[in-house]
Amino acid sequence: MIHLKLLAVFFCFCFSLSNVYATDIDNGDGSFTTIPGDTDLGNGVITGTCTAGESSAMMVGTDKIQFGGCYNTFAISTTINNILIQEGISVDKIHYRWKYINGCFNTSDSVGNYIDWCNTNIADRVNQETGEILDTEWADQFDILTVTVEITDSGGNIIETRVYSYETWYDWLNENPHSASEEWDQETGSLWQVEEDFIQLYDHINGVGSIYTPDSLGNATFRVTGQDGAMWDGYYGPIVSGGEMWFTYRSNPCAQTAMYDPSCDGYAEAYATYEYDNNCSASATYDQGCPGYWAAHYDQQCSMNALYDSGCPGYAAAYYDQQCGIDALYDSGCPGYAEAYYDQQCSIDALYDSGCPGYETAYYNQQCTISPLYDSGCPGYETAYYNQQCTISPLYDSGCPGYAAALLVQQCAISTLYSTECPGYEKAYMDYQCGLDSTYDSSCPGYAEAYLLQQCDLNTLYDIRCAGYSDAYLDQQCLQNPQYDTQCNGYIEPVTESPTTSPVVVGTGTGDSVVDNIIAAPIVIPIPIEIVQPAPVEVAPVTAATVTVIPTIQLEIATGAPAETTEQLEIAIEQEIAAEFSVEVDVEVVEEVVEEIVEEIVEEIVEVVEEVVEEVVEEVVEEVVEEVVEEVVEEVVEEVVEEVVEEVVEEVVEEVVEEIKPIVKKKVVKKLTKAEKQKAKVKKMKEIIKNKLAKLATVMGEAQSLSDQKALQAQISALINFVPGFSAYGQRAIPGVDFYTSGGIYKDKKVPENQRGLLNGLASQILHEKMVDEQYKDMN
Q1: How many Å apart are CA 722 and CA 522, to the nearest integer?
Q2: Backbone angles phi, psi at 425, to 5 degrees
């Protein structure tokens, strides 16, 4: 089988009809039907594109067209007004009829080999009950047959189209039970199906469609498309035979009246004229063109409304009624004048009368306008009430003008301590703090007694007036040196040794008897350093002027060895120096040497004291007022330590020099020159004391506890005690109670202003105010 590209080809076939109108059939309803003439398809045209080996459609005689394996179209057309040449008629229907056979179900395999002819083995290929193809392999090999009918108007526009697609059958000899055809024709051994139908252009009974005259119609065209689905060579496909066409017509009703149907020429104009005349007949007022229009119109308007014109009957009465109807206030004689007048006044002002609608609301609004305080529901009542209460008392609310000043006056009247702005605040605050604690300020009544008791409670050694001072002092000295007193635990009676015996174990000393005696001697000068923490401070408004934190530092220097021991050491030192060097000692040189040594020792002590003070003070500062007090304390401590040390150094140097002078003059043999004597003395004493102090300073820096630091301080004191002539000064003390009196010892000093003490507006100031409020609540 050869597969081709199928193209639709148009061709015409013409019907030849009889024009013998005398034989037309009268249908009895005013219409006539023409009689079909002889069939002649010779004017038709076959078109299509066929490849070699395919059979194209062909004419059989003058009334049949037969289709082969090529897809072809046969077309035939005729002009309607060439057939219907009578004038004054309209066409109701166009009738047509043809016969066809479409039932040879040939089949071929995929390469074009012929398999079955028509109905051979048809039961294996088609279900004869339903027409369904049993083997889908042959589904696309049914024959194709389609007939299309088109009717056009004189302008060539298609006004009607019908398409007839026929089901394929498989037998030329038997009726197709699946066909919609109702008529069959047995001819030349074949069974033809007959298609007869019509196209109705206008239904006069129902008034449906359009009225066409023969000259308003164009052509009637029939197109037949067919193909042998199996594409067998030869003509085994569909066959169409005998085409016929005829008409049903009648006398054109539009000629009698254009209003017969909207499709009639002139229908719109005829209809408009008809309606216009009818309306004018019904009423002369329908249109100004109607006869008698103006007179009828005037009467009509007057009857409808006497006010139409002043000449209308009853115009004056109607006008009066009209004005009264518009407004009862038009005239006092109008019905409802009194009520209208009352309503008018009420509408102008609801306060016109207590019976006016809305009187209560208007009266209420009037009173609220006069004063929003008239009622709590008045607009602006809350604001007016608030302003009224603020006027009565600014203390009504914190938002009232003058609230802050009034509140300050009120609270100050209740308690002078409410704010620093209260008159007499400073005195009241001082009295309050003094009442809580007499040690709050040196001006408090009983300050001296309370302060002494406070310090004695903290440290019995604070002052000789403290209860138990003697016992505590003895315990302290015994702890540092059991040889201090015979009452000390661990006291050992001194053993008199020969002058040649050294107190240092043989093999452990330096080889220098003077140095070994200094290192091994049990004499101790304690320098207790007491850091007295201030009593709990009541929080008060803090300013740079009121912050004064001066930690009390008690620095006592005393000897811990008996006088005879010191004297013995001094004699021993002098003898050793005289024996070893045999130099002459100049008093001025000794003074310079002692002063230099003492300065170095004091520097070491100051460093240690400052470190201890800083550690203790830092803890106190962090607990009390971390940010505000720290800088002030550092500056004050620095000044206090500097001043104390300065005074101590001056006194120490003076005492040492005074004590060394007579000893040197009496005991030392003046053999060496002044330069040699100075060099030897300085070298020995510096070497011994500085080395020892350096070691102790290192150890003290690593000490972890206060007790360890105290023990190391005792050793440092012992080295200081071995300065010749220092024993006399060791009996002196600087008692704290005499030093820290309320007499203002720093009048010539200026404490730098601490900017961090200015807390106005900061979180600490807010906290302070809350604490003052709490104090006030507690007092009440």
Answers
A1: 10
A2: -60, -45
